[in-house]
């Protein structure tokens, strides 16, 4: 679950419970010469986000956050990330179509997708009624929901 401050001379904070996934990207990061800008935190996302929020300077300071982790926690991530991102900042959530299953009846969805489908459906409904954000669903890949924090 990487979250990013702006590019340029600013910092990128990247969180993942498994360092291996960060290591996969390392060759590209090195090639782009941005390794020194990335603060990688190997941790469950919730405690890592809570730690970031302990510092009042982090509140409302992030330009952009990208969330791509366990879907069951998307609503929890949203509440924390909303405190970190600035007003007019952008949060992007990946996999919000969940293999297209969100528009299918539950009976027609394979067992392996059901838990994720249920979490993503709850998340999508909650975002749709969240007056703190404007949302746009980009039907690319597995679905990207782009949110702008408006207040
Ligand atoms: C589909 S991968 C995406 C990796 C990366 N965002 C990318 O785009 O290449 C999902 C990632 O979420 C991480 N993840 C899953 N549950 C997590 C949690 N509770 N806290 C932090 N990271 C988690 C996994 O380790 C995995 O790297």
Automatic annotation (TrEMBL):
The keyword Methyltransferase applies. Belongs to the class I-like SAM-binding methyltransferase superfamily. Cation-dependent O-methyltransferase family. GO terms for molecular function: O-methyltransferase activity; S-adenosylmethionine-dependent methyltransferase activity. Keywords: Lignin biosynthesis, Methyltransferase, S-adenosyl-L-methionine, Transferase. Coiled coil: none annotated. The keyword Ubl conjugation does not apply. PROSITE patterns: SAM_OMT_I. This is Uncharacterized protein. InterPro entries: Cation-dep_OMT (IPR050362), SAM-dependent_MTases_sf (IPR029063), SAM_O-MeTrfase (IPR002935). It comes from the Eukaryota. It comes from Mikania micrantha. One of its GO terms (biological process) is methylation. Pfam families: Methyltransf_3.
């Amino acid at each position: 679950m990487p979250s990013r401050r702006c590019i340029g001379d600013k910092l990128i904070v990247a969180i993942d419970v498994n360092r291996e996934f960060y290591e996969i990207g390392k060759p590209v990061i090195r090639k782009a010469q941005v390794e020194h800008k990335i603060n990688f935190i190997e941790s469950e996302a919730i405690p890592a986000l809570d730690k970031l929020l302990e510092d009042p300077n982090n509140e409302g300071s992030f330009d952009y956050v990208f969330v791509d982790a366990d879907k069951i926690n998307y609503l929890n991530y949203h509440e924390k990330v909303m405190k970190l991102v600035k007003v007019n900042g952008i949060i992007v959530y990946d996999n919000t179509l969940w293999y297209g299953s969100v528009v299918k009846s539950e009976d027609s969805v394979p067992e392996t997708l059901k838990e994720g489908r249920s979490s993503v459906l709850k998340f999508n409904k909650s975002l749709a009624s969240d007056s703190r954000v404007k949302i746009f669903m980009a039907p690319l890949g597995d679905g990207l929901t782009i949110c702008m924090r408006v207040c």
